[in-house]
Amino acid sequence: MHSEVLPSVSPSSGPPRIAPPKRAAAPLGPGPASLSEWIAAGDSLRARGRIGEALSAYEQARALVPGHALPFTRDACLRLEELLGPAPSPVATAPSSARVQMSNLGANGRYGNQLLQYAFLILYARRHGLIAEVPDWIGRHVFGFADPLPSRTRPVISENDLDLLGALRGEVVPAPRDCDLSGYFCADTRLWGPVATDFRRLFAEPVAQIRRRLESALAHLHARGRTLVAVHLRRGDFGYGRFWIAPAGWYLDWLRRLWRDLPDPVLYVATDDPQAAEPFREFQPLLSRDFDAGPDPLPLLLDHFLLARASHLAISNSSFSFTAAMLNDNLKVAVRPHPDARQLVAFDPWASPVLLDAARVSPWIAGTDRASTGAMGPDQCVVHYGSHCAGWTHQVRAHFPTLRVHELSEGESLDDWRAAQGVDIIHHLGLGDEVSFATFVASARESLASASIEMLHLGSSRADVAEQAAGCGFAVHAVHANGAVRLAVATPRTRVTGIKPDAVFSDRPALSNTRTGERPAFLVASLFTPSHRALAERLAGSLSAFGVPFALFEVPTVHDSISPRGTPDPAFTKASFVRCMLDRHHIPVLYVDCDCVLRSEPRLLRSLVDSGCEFAVYNWLADPYTDGFAPVAMTGADGRIVTPTNRFYRYAVGIDAFAPTQLICSGATQFYADTAAARGLLDTWSAVISEHPGVPDDPCLDVAFNFRTPSAQLPRYSWLDKAYARYLYWIYARPVIDHPQMPAGPRQQSEAAREFSRRPRYRTELAEIRSEPRLLPRDCIIDTQERRLLRLTSTPGESRIQAADAGPLLHELFLDQ
Fold this sequence. Notes:
By secondary structure, this protein is α/β, with parallel strands linked by helices. It has 23 helices and 34 strands. The strands form nine sheets. Strands 17-19-18-20-27-22-28 form a seven-stranded mixed β-sheet, sandwiched between helices. The protein has a five-stranded mixed β-sheet with strand order 7-6-8-9-10, with helices on both faces. It has a five-stranded antiparallel β-sheet with strand order 23-25-32-33-34, with no helix packed on it. Helix 2 (51-64) runs antiparallel to helix 3 and helix 12 (368-375) packs parallel to helix 13. The protein is globular.
């Protein structure tokens, strides 16, 4: 048996949060967690002829980093090879010849970018008498290119370090040679020099099998109309940084002005989202799906081919359609969206920058600088309501190039958009000055009433926002430090106050088995959002089965220390919730995450109450055995993945430090007594969370316990057995309170969170290295089906890693709860 595609998991500096192994479409099973590992897995499978599994691996890589070029390139090349046969063999060249290469072709941008990069390299090599070397890329298969592969590693010269376009024009002496050129070459195309004819000739002739399909579609279009008008609408991976999306209205305005004067026009819409063509129904557009384009990536090639043949062309802010315009020698009218003009404007594809960036900035209350750099985060949902390409939108994108800003036009329903997109919380919404407040409220009444818009950013003309809000039945709920506001329904039923936690949580829990006037020995409490109701009901059912009293509260959101998509409102922290439960019921409270399940009677809880314990949680530093194990994929002698895919486990995480007076917690379950000391710890925990926005609450509790609370004021504490906070990677622990899934992977951190993570979380001088023997060896694979331990070995001269039998598994495992 062979080890294959092992997960890359290592202990972290904080309480270990194990990323579950990413799962590909069947039959890959668990696999790597990074893009490069999925690419490597796909390459390995492709080399062994397992094409379907290789494509699944590339799809997993694409899902991890949407828009990344390398998965696209690998996937497209493999699909074309399967469809057309192998690409031409690279030509042989004299070893002594001077050359130039572009080793990252295929990894820096997708189809349009790759055409620009390849054309630059070939035209550069021709001008300076060099041999051009390139890796496998889509052009080998589409155009039958047979350039030699990179022969060896060469020094890299980037367009950021040298004027490479100047070198193409012959203005850099000496011109670099025997090097590896790198760049996007998306500057103003005038800088390329007089190369338009040579550029077009490079990509004039696709291979015969592809050309026949493309020309058939073109003939069908011309049968529908003499004048081909083409529009490119890129949607799927756009909406962030400089890759902004122009609204359909700009294109419709242009078409309506143009259409009636064209002789027998026909419209083709090239898009990665067919729904984007719906507003164009009045022009009866055709899309790639209306032709026999064939499997991927042929529809993409058809889009580009037809854009390059249209006489009237409207592009997106995208190198894909811009390069089509560069190739188009039939072009009479070319227009593009302009972010400052907010309409389509004419352009010359050989005298314009490939991409347009906005230059215009509008004044906003308190400025967007503080709003963007302070309160916003890359994982948050950000929306602008009003004109597309507004100054607020541009400034936010400038601060967060990877943050997607969604844009809705005036009149669109924000409530409907939230429902269609499955968005629980909009963290920031910029409202355009041109939108009447009443129009906005009408489109977002449900979102405002349910406190689903955290911050509303308003232009300087909204100084009378309180009066405008009151006229629509809302009140200004809070003014944030960055000048943004939050609205609430202007009635006594306002759901969110942002000040007093007791007003946040209803007097009547959504799920409960306690009766009015009843005073149990303790109460299990949890909070959940509507999207987690099914999990909360599962928890409630398991608690009822053992007669455990509980009160589970539905809330519109949770704090961002619990979920990166949560709210900054401190009322929604676990600390505030537990404090509210103590103040309301005056009995000990066991907080439990809503995605947990009670598996057996929790006898320990009665012992905690009877012993006078004031605080209890699972503590990694006090547990003799912390090792956790994650599933790993294995292949058999036939090269196929062994099933079931969760049969094998491998060591993934553990903490070797032992310091039972210090705390590194996993806070899925936490016990607090109704005492001043327990309340004091909760208040300190709340303060640490407030001081460190974006930091998860577990490390904040560690700091509150280890550093911020004097020992004399600490509550009487006890540490929960892992059975009462059992995560799936503790496969050897019989669960009482079970978290049936692997913990969520580490979330993307803000700079403030990264700075926090660099600080110590406990007093290391109080720790020692644990000496207890391990329950299970870290260097073995656990075969849970055969109950054997397997040790990985390698044979000299062989690339495969063998998994040799290392003895029986003597411990009971708990995997099927």
